Amino acid sequence: MTVHAIATWLLVNKTEIAGFTATLLGIWLTTKRLLICWPVTLLADFLYFVVFYQARLFSDALLQVFFIAFTLYGWWHWWRGVRDEGEVRVSPLGWRSAIAALAAGAMGAVALSRLMLYLGAQLQVTIALPHLDATLASYSLVASWWQARKQIANWWLWIVVDLVYVGEYVYKDLWPTALLYLVLVGLAVLGWWDWRRAAKLQTACCTTLRSGSPLM
To answer: Which of 28, 45, 57, 113 is geometrically suited to a Cys-Cys bond with 134, CB 3.0 to 4.6 A?
Structure first.
């Protein structure tokens, strides 16, 4: 590939590459529980809205709108935690809440797929993989909600969702995005590891305080 061809490819795919970079940075900052992750993630949300709309992945484009709302909420929720407790503390997720959220994700997938098919019919366009796209979008919202609420389970769900997304984006010839989501699987594993360690430290700290023993 010549320098000219590389430059042309970079120019044509500049929005996707910028979204790629912002998403990677935002997720990495999230694994470290750093508040700055949210403005970086917000930028990625806007960039990928453009990418997905242009690729006619309308469920994913609509998903970015919800992501923007969740990102703003997560930013506020984490900031409040830092203000009150001095750090971002991991929160537990009960079984009832988990089951309810997963059920909501299933219902959202059905509703969103019907909406995408309806919009496609109205616009007289063929929407690629509408059911899969809607399912991934719906469960991405569940994972984003858990992430905004600082719950470790978000990483497990992201691992599953991102693995399926890799296959979808390869099918759609969005190779930088497919590579991105493969990397995001690795970052989700790292996030789970770091957040689990933080949760254990929080539990140990609380146990020590309740026992009245000095902190070591």
So the answer is: 113
